[in-house]
Fold:
Amino acid sequence: MGVRHRKTELDVTGALAEGVTRAAVGRSLRQGAEPHKNRGNAMFRQVHASYRPLTLGLLSLILASGAAQADQYQDAAKRWLQDEFTPSTLSPEQQMAELQWFIDAAKPFRGMQINVVSETLTTHKYESEVLAKAFSEITGIQLHHDLLQEGDVIEKLQTQMQSGRNIYDGYVNDSDLIGTHSRYGKVVPISDMIKGDAAAVTSPTLDLDDFIGLSFTTGPDGKIYQLPDQQFANLYWFRADWFDDPDLKAKFKQKYGYELGVPVNWSAYEDIANFFTNDVKEIDGKRVYGHMDYGKKDPSLGWRFTDAWFSMAGEGDKGLPNGLPVDEWGIRVEQCHPVGSSMSRGGGTNSPAAVFATQKYIDWLHAYAPPEAQGMTFSEAGPVPAQGSVAQQIFWYTAFTADMTKPGLPVVNADGTPKWRMAPSPVGPYWEKGMKKGYQDVGSWTFMKSTPEKNRLAAWLYAQFVTAKTVSLKKTLVGLTPIRESDIQSQAMTDAAPNLGGLVEFYRSPARLEWSPTGTNVPDYPKLAQLWWQYISRAVSGETSVQNALDGLADAQDRIMERLERANVQPQCGPKLNEPRDAQYWLDQPGAPKPKLENEKPQGKTVPYAEMVKSWQES
Structure:
């Protein structure tokens, strides 16, 4: 009995210790057990007496190994704190306490291989190359963080949703899919996780109230479906040094009758674009342009529009984070059910405001941007403003900030400060106060029901780790995609602000709430989004008119929603399309779709940058 009992103790203890091999335990057990088996009780007692020091010594070694193992994770945490996780809004003691929680919470998952995926942003590269390694060393969970192009991430997610086969244990997926996730029932809402099976592995310092993007990841049912991991906005970008040039300011005012400054409306943007492209033409002997964009027939052309271009012009209804009942895609909802995107069903995808927005995009691309822009994709056009030949860009992602502040660029001063600034996007003539002004990307942690529970919970630990206050400020300074209010208000961000061209000022202002991702009106983002570039490209190429292209787009969206309705695959808030009727009926109703304005180019209006920043600070 004694040996078998001790064997059980050794097996259990050995399973918890990696420092002693199973073979060593086996050899010791065999040395003690064989006398008991072959020579009787008397002989066993003699051998057992000599065996006891060995087994007790081995047990001490195993227990010491367990303590050393615990020290291993704590030592890793201390090393990462010292070498990498600074600055932070937490004190070093608070950071270590937070990391100790991760060490303890990870015990049931140690040794597991967990796979997650995100798109290839600077922020996610930092997570993949630095934070995943830190997490693995601190927790003992082997974390592999893949980086793919955004379209490939969506494809993997769709495949897992449709097949039920686990491909990744966690996804950083744009919150643009909030309407998809809240309807299909394939995702485990974060709200349900932290109250249910993930309660024991949800950090007490997670502090959801500190996340600035939770309203974007909340479904119509009030549940949080995704946890924000990074955020960046689409703003207006301009060369502040050129706009401050006294000679250029005088020439602009002489021609247009108002000051050269940050454009408040699209009329001013167009005037400034024309001024630099056709009047200024050259600065320091280099050809300059008043606008930058891209126009190649490519999936990225769809983002150019679905990322709130229509709402910037004023298509849609009032409401934040998205217009209701009609949003920036032109999709109308009634009691959470999409009822149509064509004007004949009460939608706005082919409305006068949408036609105006699309026509201006085409006109400005051809008239004011570098000629090569027409054949560029999003990724090809992105670096062009940093080359020093562009005066302004109305549709510019703040995710480019890190790459636009590198020393030696034509748009960066010798002291490291930028020659450019970012500012709120100007709005079109259909825009009304109370509407969203632009787009904000919110890449968010998303967990599928088809993922095995233990894998999902381990991936949830990693999601919390890369967004934890211990690491989030450093991650923000690397990728410049802030997610926490505490980080935005930190001294470190104040110190960095002069080199970031207005990023800190924007995120500290209440104005940031007017920039939001695609919302809950869109019932199936992957299926609907792929339509946009195919139809818009026909208008860009001149194959058809803008009106015909948008009529086709609106009809194609309605047909997809009809199929979703017939298949009844979205039991919660699925499409229930209105019957078509004369579009004039809807144009005569308040709100969107809005009738065509008699004057789509009101007087241009600008504001000095310093005055705009001051208004932010005062609010």
